[in-house]
Amino acid sequence: MNRICFLFFTLTLTQLSAFSQSSDTKTPQETARAFTRQGDYTNALVVLNEALKKDPQNLELNKDIAFNYYLEKEYDRGATIARALIERPDADVASYQILALIYKATDQFKECEKLYRGGLKRYPKSGALYNEYGEMLWSRDDRDAIKQWEKGIQIDPNYSTNYYNASRYYFRAGDNVWSLLYGETFLNLESYSKRTAEIKELVLDGYKKLFTEADMQKNEDMGNPFVGAYLNIIGKLSFTMAQGISTESLTVLRTKFILNWFETYPSNFPFRLFDHERQLLKEGMFDAYNQWLFGPTENLTVFQAWCTAHSDDYTRFINFQKGRIFKLPEGQYYQTVK
């Protein structure tokens, strides 16, 4: 259902009408979307179909009609409209997403896979389509799902859900490095969503797994220079875990890691996440960042006590975090999918 909600809000991000309207006047599409949010798909369709009579080629109206038919489980009618949409020269990514929803709801997985391939041929830089293609494959227990998520990360590095799925995949697969890096990247791209707490727990558990491996480099580097560099430094800092893994010990570890990384590999592997951590360290917000990252998961009571004792520091970090946009450049991609 989260996927449905996400798509619905995506569909609402359309351009405003060129005609000025009074603040209390709603367009037919706004009225219909209000019905959709209430779960009244029948009334939404009544309003949309009436509006379509005046503007039959309107892409947004047609998308909303197909989507409401999907929600009402009128799959055949929705598919008829959605198939016509993707043939249009002005079809967008959401047009493909709506038809994909219908195909998945009706177990037409071969058609859905064909649809995603066609959509990606038309929109090769769509992280959303790569993500959903991967999710469809994963629902069929197809491990090629990770290839789609990785491709999405590579070509559309600021689309957060590919990191979410890849981090969870690698955590289950025992690839601790990429689970940690993708998990923390996701948390900076999507810091306050329903999925944030889940990935915070995964990242904390990922560090525990990393340091409880008998051989830290077991199946990790596989000839990947970036991962080898990461483990080279982390391995030398394992002494920071001598008293156990906690928010405090992880803060020490990660502080030393950033200092060592930029001393040892100052320009070998540009990586936005590490640049961000170094910035926080320089500006005196790294302790608060680590508390935000690990504290609530490790021990909520202790975390709340820390926040009370360091209220100015934590408020400063939260204000900074909410006031900035964490954006990743293209080209900082170091994974090698087997």
Rg from Cα? 23 Å
The fraction of residues in strands falls at under 5%
Briefly note the structural class of the backbone. mainly alpha
Distance between the termini: 32 Å
Order of helices and strands: HHHHHHHHHHHHHHHHHH
Describe the structure.
- This protein is an all-alpha fold and 338 residues long.
- The chain has a domain at 175-338.
- It contains 18 helices and no strands.
- The chain has helices at residues 2-11, 28-37, 41-54, 59-71, 75-86, 93-105, 109-122, 127-139, 145-155, 160-173, 176-189, 196-212, 225-236, 247-264, 272-282, 286-298, 300-309, 311-323.
- The protein is elongated, with a radius of gyration of 23 Å.
- Residues 12-24 have low confidence and may be disordered.
Give a topology summary.
Layout (H helix, E strand, L loop, with lengths): L1 H10 L16 H10 L3 H14 L4 H13 L3 H12 L6 H13 L3 H14 L4 H13 L5 H11 L4 H14 L2 H14 L6 H17 L12 H12 L10 H18 L7 H11 L3 H13 L1 H10 L1 H13 L15
Helix pairs in contact: 1-6, 2-3, 3-4, 4-5, 4-6, 5-6, 6-7, 6-8, 7-8, 8-9, 9-10, 10-11, 11-12, 12-16, 13-14, 14-16, 16-17
